[in-house]
Amino acid sequence: MRSRGPILTLLVVAVLAGILLVANMTRGPSAGTANRAAAATSSVAPAAAPAAAPAAAPPGTATEAEAEAPDAATGDAPEATGPAAATPFPAQAKYTGYTDGNHAALAVTVRDNKVSAYLCDGKTIEAWYQGSSAGGKLDAKGRGANALTGSLSGGKLSGTVSAGGKSWTYTAAPAAAPAGLYRSKTPAATTGWVKDSNGQVTGLVNAGGALRPAPALDPATAQSVEGGDTVVGQ
To answer: Is the pTM of this model over 0.85?
Structure first.
């Protein structure tokens, strides 16, 4: 009977040890494990914060990029300011040509910004003009509403000319002697000739308003008209 006491004690101790073991196994992670996990989490560097957005420009203010960019609607770059300067006329020059459609021949002479010109179709149309070429623009007047305007482009003269109530556009190229404008005046009549750079001559005689074909041009007796020579009203 006395031998049962130690055995019971040992059984009780074993049962208690098993209970304690089971309890330890069913508990959550130890405090040390939790602490180590927290420390590992805190050691991770935080993500970089997003960059701050640029401050918005005040309403109605263009940004630098917008100011330099072409127009988004048209694709055009900003327009250059100021009109292109007109080509100035030489101090002395001659131009011969024809109205568009070859209706009439035209000779224009310039000297020191003074202009003399003659339009003639060799049949029923003629007119004399006088004016200036200041500012790179030619502006000359004839009798009544007859007028001549023009400007230089690429060395050629072009513009509009009117006579007898009709108007035409024209183009005239630089010419050298013997091409040019010729005139002969007598008390009875005035004769005008246009000689182009190819030697073609067009002329009319005006005797008090009555027109007739001009005789052959003789440069030895006809006057070579230069800009500034009086031609209108005679």
So the answer is: no
